Inverse folding.
């Protein structure tokens, strides 16, 4: 259960720093503050965990390579048809 | 039909490649397209959400890049400069696509309260340890497309393409602080969208 017996203002206050926190860009004092808060606040613990998972999921999203025919048309429109189909 | 080959090793470094581009060397231009085309296509595709429009964007971007190599000052990496041109081309097309006059420059999220997390359940997924199912991939792609363009561009460059904060800020011509604010808003919005799908919904291993 999410029991919230502390001030929601703390959650709100910490929220803006959570991206810096998961990126490792936050100074240590604030990190300690966030970690202490998360020990008492299930909501914020979940938000940090799922925010981290969000970033991680997109990091793993495979890129769609440029299809060969798109590259071919790109070469043509750049007046580079001599290079169409050139070996990689 | 294949004629000339593209020798990516011909230019020792970026400065040499730029010099060749400046002298109008077509082989250098072909090299630039080969080296950076796929990354620019990936950005265009994520911002536009449509392969045909992504192709138009990449064409706009490289035509523009080849035409103004002289304006590349060498202070940033060539890729950052190309990301900037590509992102601009994409945002320009989005502007044309919209018939209303909502500004794309400022995120439409005004009230701080709108950013407060609503979805507070755990996710039963372990990123990095399992492949993404095609269903989840689609949810993720639609979530990105639902972001306001300014947030979307920041997120795509930083979190999908993996540019550094500094590079992504340069590509968008905004401060690093502004980039971080947009990125954070984008991540929070995406988290909400994904939560709708992932909360209490155990993920199958993709086949
Ligand atoms: Zn909290």
């Amino acid at each position: 259960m999410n029991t919230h017996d502390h001030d929601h203002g703390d959650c709100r206050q910490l929220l803006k720093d959570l991206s810096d926190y998961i990126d490792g860009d936050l100074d240590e004092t604030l990190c300690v503050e966030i970690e202490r808060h998360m020990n008492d606040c299930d909501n914020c613990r979940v938000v940090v965990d799922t925010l981290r998972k969000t970033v991680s999921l997109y990091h793993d999203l495979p890129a769609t390579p440029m299809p060969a025919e798109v590259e071919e048309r790109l070469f043509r429109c750049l007046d580079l048809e001599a290079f169409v189909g050139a070996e990689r | 039909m294949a004629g000339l080959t593209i020798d990516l090793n011909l230019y020792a470094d970026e400065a040499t490649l730029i010099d060749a581009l400046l002298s109008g060397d077509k082989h250098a231009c072909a090299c630039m397209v080969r080296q950076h085309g796929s990354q620019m296509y990936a950005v265009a595709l994520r911002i536009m959400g449509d392969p045909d429009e992504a192709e138009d964007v990449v064409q706009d971007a490289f035509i523009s890049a080849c035409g103004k190599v002289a304006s590349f000052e060498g202070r940033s990496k060539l890729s950052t400069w190309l990301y900037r041109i590509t992102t601009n081309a994409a945002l320009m097309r989005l502007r044309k696509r919209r018939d209303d006059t909502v500004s794309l420059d400022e995120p439409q999220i005004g009230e701080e309260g709108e950013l407060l997390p609503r979805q507070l359940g755990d996710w039963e997924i372990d990123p990095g340890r399992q492949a993404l199912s095609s269903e989840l991939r689609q949810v993720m792609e639609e979530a990105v497309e639902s972001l306001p363009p300014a947030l979307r561009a920041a997120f795509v460059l930083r979190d999908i393409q993996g540019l550094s904060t500094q590079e992504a800020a340069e590509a968008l011509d905004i401060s690093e602080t502004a980039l971080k604010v947009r990125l954070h808003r984008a991540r929070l919005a995406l988290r909400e969208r994904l939560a709708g799908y992932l909360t209490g919904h155990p993920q199958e291993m993709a086949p």
